[in-house]
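thought: fold this chain, then report.
action: predict
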Amino acid sequence: MYEKSKAKLASKRVFRKRLVSAAITGFLIMFISLLIGIFGYHFIGELRWVDSFLNASMILGGMGPVDMFANDSAKIFAGFYALFSGVAFLAGIGVILTPMLHRFLHRFHLDLDDEAETAGKKK
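observation:
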């Protein structure tokens, strides 16, 4: 999907396409994670839909839970969802940032190769 280290830098059109694709994939990861939390809090935690959305959003965003639960199954779900959502959020952000980081490192690598060639010709 990405060019090799010795290849030319991808065009702006290709880069924009990668950005859009990565953004859609990253936000889809976070949206599915949010839906898992909403449904879990609603059906297992027996919260209303709005409260389920609030709790899932707060956990996924790293802020922490809003409601406390009386039954053990809801507490177990909340614990596993908190662990899952931390990884899902970081994975989503990683997917979104990957094209930008790759382009930066690829351009940096090409600049270093150009400097090395220039230094080798001067000798």
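thought: worth noting. DSSP finds three helices and no strands in the chain.
final: tokens above.
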